[in-house]
């Protein structure tokens, strides 16, 4: 009996320490688009759709290739939809001077799609790259008074 109480006290203190830095993950619903983390490479490189909900924070996820796997909630992140269309973002950048290189002047007269690269000969950033090391002048090493 005494050992059980002692183990319960230890378990309570471990749970308390874990809960100090943990945050709860919101449950996912069926049909939610999610990113899946690969346990080996630690990259969020796969995309799927939640098709089932299991017990203890596990979800059945269907991938684009048709395979279906069970994944724990901590390996899933809901995909966030863009709040504004990309055209609005580009228009806003063009108005601020950031997107001046990508103006409509670069579209050819024949209506063919323009290249995603700036025209040759135009420099995006003409300033030199920042120095990566300090500018301290180093003294020459003198060995054996030679």
Please sum up the structure shown.
The protein is an alpha+beta fold. Helix content is 21%, strand content 18%.
Architecture overview:
The protein has a domain at 25-98: SH3 type barrels (Roll). It starts with a helix and ends in a 51-residue tail after the last helix. The protein is flat and about 75 Å long. A hairpin with a 4-residue loop joins strand 3 (58-63) and strand 4 (68-72). It is of the alpha+beta class and 146 residues long. It has a five-stranded antiparallel β-sheet with strand order 4-3-2-1-5, with no helix packed on it. The chain has two helices and five strands.
Topology:
Layout: H1 2-21, E1 33-36, E2 46-53, E3 58-63, E4 68-72, E5 76-78, H2 86-95
Key attributes of the depicted protein:
146 residues, alpha+beta, SH3 type barrels, 5-stranded antiparallel sheet
| Element-level helix/strand string | HEEEEEH
Helix amount: 10-25%
Query: Helices and strands: which structural class?
Result: alpha+beta
Number of helices: 2
